[in-house]
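> forwarded from #structure-qc
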């Protein structure tokens, strides 16, 4: 067994590998860029080596710097995590030249599977079902249009070396192909150094199912059941679960055997994932097709660990050291149900725009990396790589943490997600915690009738929060009045000028959205609009969470004081709550409402990013919906379109310029 390994990655996956290595008694080396100098994974490792500037192209993507760090520290092996160099065959070959082991598959398998065009040819040869499409070289946009017309719309354009939802465009028409083909090529080149694109038929009502495989260097390959990864936004996974509510034992066996056949065809060992697309419209479950094979550890690997009890990182290390697998296919079972939601630095209330900046408060439901390594604390596990005061930069992926829950049933795993998300504190930047909770509560998700179009279909106009029941609004009004009285009492004590006998207001007007409720507090209890609420809670002004027992139900509310009341978050929604003592509520209607300025004539940068393309110039006429500019942020290109017809009056930004959020790009008249 290795005595020391280096982790050629950052963030939560670096922490994940370090934790297992420590459990195995193996020393660890971290490498870090300027942006990560104070990151938690650097402190977790036994040694840390600085490898360059913040941009990944100048640090984490440079194989020679990784190899130099190995030599400097005496690391015998490298675990690549996912992303960066994890699927670069040339990196493995360079490590081999320096007698450094790679904790992953052989380079020939990486090369074969990393090229989506070649991998489909290999899949066909191995007897694996593949999606109809064009797997040759595409010359230009006109050629792409011709191919798409032959296949039949809709089609999916994919960067050949792509992954992680990047370098993908769905086209329903020739217009979509002409608009998206070049962007797909650019994303492939910028993210993966390869601008080749292939086109395939888009399967209607698709479900994204993947099979986890694990092999050793002695010819043994197993499949560790499936994961359902259909909840996606812009082809990037948001929620994963294991097992799938759709897959039958017969399907599982057929999919697993094809995944093993694919792995054996390329001499695969270590952990890997065969991704399949399944037609949700096919009730037989037999219409599944090979998408690609990821020759690395997946972001969602914890859900497989939770239902099998197998530490995949440990197995990868043991396989790399030459050990045989100690289990057989018959040993692989399914124990309970597990779900994972990805906490991203993106704001669903603003069209899921990436958010960067300082993390002012970070309080996960259980401490990261605590409890059982596989199932965490009482079935709640948090894999993270951030901390209070840390910064989410523009240089890397926007994922902050992974929340994994395990239960005896699917319903229990989902309920644990909702409770954990309610108590997950994250302040200082936009995040998707409310959205994740809303997904977990959605009736269609609870039924298991999901496809990769779920988010687009259920939230066509964007996300404005999960719907709130009358009961929830009544309970929030009671909590707001309770907290308002606590603040009033504190103000009375601090001021010390109003007399000791003065009590805080007992009658309140609570306004949540357009709903106005009257709340009365007394020694007997709390009444909302004359109806009693059985509330039991503790709150001290300044607390960021209230755990309220309402009858036998526990309601966890994130709360922050505002000028006119409270900002409250719970059950997948945010609420601006106005609290007014009833004695002065009559005056509220006379307050002048501030009207926000009209900014529709400006094209503003919606997030910090790089202006990679500017399609218009001063004096140009534009039409509503026309692409005006492209901004790249967190490795994704975002097309900015005209909101109305007009003429470009002035241009304030230049192509290649780094822009701040709300920076003016151009003005229309």
């Amino acid at each position: 067994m290795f005595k020391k390994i280096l982790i050629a990655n950052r963030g939560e996956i670096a922490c994940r590998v370090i934790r297992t290595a420590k459990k195995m008694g193996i020393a660890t080396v971290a490498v870090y860029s300027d942006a990560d100098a104070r990151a938690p994974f650097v402190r977790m490792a036994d040694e840390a080596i600085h490898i360059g500037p913040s941009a990944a192209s100048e640090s984490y993507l440079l194989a020679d710097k990784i190899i130099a760090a190995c030599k400097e520290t005496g690391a015998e092996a490298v675990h690549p995590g996912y992303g960066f160099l994890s699927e670069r065959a040339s990196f493995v070959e360079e490590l081999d030249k320096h007698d450094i082991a790679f904790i992953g598959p052989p380079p020939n398998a990486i090369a074969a599977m990393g090229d989506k065009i070649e991998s489909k040819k290999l899949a066909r040869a191995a007897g694996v079902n593949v999606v109809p499409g064009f797997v040759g070289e595409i010359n230009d946009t006109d050629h792409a249009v011709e191919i798409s017309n032959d296949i039949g719309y809709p089609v999916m354009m994919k960067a050949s070396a792509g992954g992680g939802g990047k370098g993908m465009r769905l086209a329903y028409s020739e217009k979509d192909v002409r608009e998206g083909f070049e962007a797909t090529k650019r994303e492939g080149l910028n993210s993966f150094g390869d601008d080749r694109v292939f086109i395939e038929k888009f399967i209607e009502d698709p479900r994204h199912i993947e099979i986890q495989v694990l092999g050793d260097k002695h010819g043994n390959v197993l499949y560790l059941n499936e994961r359902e990864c259909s909840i996606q936004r812009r082809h990037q996974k948001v929620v994963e679960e294991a097992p799938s509510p759709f897959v039958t034992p017969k399907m599982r066996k057929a999919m697993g055997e094809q995944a093993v056949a694919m792995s054996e065809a390329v001499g695969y060992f270590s952990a890997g994932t065969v991704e399949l697309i399944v037609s949700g419209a096919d009730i037989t479950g037999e219409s599944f097709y090979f998408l690609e094979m990821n020759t690395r550890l997946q972001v969602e690997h914890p859900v497989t660990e939770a239902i099998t009890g197998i530490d995949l990182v440990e197995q990868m290390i043991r396989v790399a050291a030459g050990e045989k697998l100690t289990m057989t296919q018959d040993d692989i079972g399914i124990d309970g149900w597990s779900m994972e939601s990805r906490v991203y630095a993106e704001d669903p209330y603003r069209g899921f725009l990436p958010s960067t900046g300082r993390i002012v408060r970070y309080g996960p439901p259980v401490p990261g990396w605590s409890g059982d390594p596989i199932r965490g604390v009482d079935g709640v596990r948090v894999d993270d790589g951030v901390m209070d005061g840390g910064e989410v930069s523009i240089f890397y992926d926007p994922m902050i943490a992974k929340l994994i829950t395990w239960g005896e049933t699917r319903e229990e795993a989902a309920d644990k997600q909702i409770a954990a998300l309610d108590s997950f504190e994250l302040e200082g930047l936009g995040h998707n915690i409310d959205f994740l909770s809303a997904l977990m509560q959605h009736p269609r998700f609870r039924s298991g009738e999901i496809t990769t179009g779920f988010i687009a279909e259920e939230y066509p106009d964007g996300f404005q929060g999960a719907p709130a029941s009358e009961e929830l609004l009544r309970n929030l009004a009671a909590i707001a009045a309770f907290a308002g009285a606590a603040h009033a009492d504190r103000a009375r004590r601090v001021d010390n000028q109003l007399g000791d006998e003065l009590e805080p207001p007992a009658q309140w007007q609570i306004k949540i959205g357009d709903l106005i409720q009257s709340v009365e507090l007394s020694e007997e209890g709390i009444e909302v609009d004359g109806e009693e609420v059985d509330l039991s809670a503790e709150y001290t002004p300044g607390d960021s969470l209230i755990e309220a027992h309402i009858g036998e139900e526990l309601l966890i509310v994130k709360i922050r004081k505002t000028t006119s009341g409270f900002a409250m978050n719970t059950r997948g929604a945010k609420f601006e709550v106005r609290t007014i003592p009833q004695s002065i509520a009559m005056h509220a209607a006379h307050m002048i409402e501030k009207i926000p300025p009209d900014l529709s004539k400006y094209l503003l940068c919606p997030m910090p990013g790089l202006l990679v393309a500017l399609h218009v110039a001063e004096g140009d006429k534009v039409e509503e919906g026309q692409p005006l500019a492209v901004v790249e942020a967190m490795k994704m290109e975002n097309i900015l379109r005209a909101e109305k017809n007009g003429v470009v009056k002035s241009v304030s930004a230049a192509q290649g310029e780094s822009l701040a959020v709300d920076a003016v790009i151009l003005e229309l008249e």
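QC bot note: The chain is about 25% helix and 30% strand. The longest helix spans residues 470-495.
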